[in-house]
Amino acid sequence: MKRRSGTNNKKVKAQRQRPFWLTALVVFSLVGILFVAITYKSFSAVTAEVRENEQLNSTIQNLTDENLQLQDEIHSLKTDPKVIEREAKRLGIAVKDLDAKTQVSVPAK
Q1: Where would I find the H helices in the chain?
Q2: What whole-number distance in Å separates Cα of residue 102 and Cα of residue 95?
Q3: How far is Cα 29 from Cα 35, in angstroms, rounded to an integer?
Q4: Segments of the chain with pLDDT less than 50
Q5: Domain containing 35: what range?
Q6: In this structure, is residue 109 part of a structural domain?
């Protein structure tokens, strides 16, 4: 009887064993899924950062352009008598024969 039970145990063990390729396939599938999930999450984060960076660069460019326009306007207000006269009229200040050296006080609003 011992022989039969020993033989039966070998048969049961042989039937219960899974093929190696099936185990390897499951392991590789899980590793692949994990790799894809981590890679996708990283890709999404990088894409969001790139989008934000482009938006900030656009904002910086717009502010730089606006700053240059304001600097030009300040320069022309300091040096060009016609611009000074135009702005004085716009503010309701009477201007008579202003030369470049004459300073006009502007009332504060």
Answers
A1: 2-16, 20-79, 81-91
A2: 11
A3: 10
A4: 1-2
A5: 21-91
A6: no
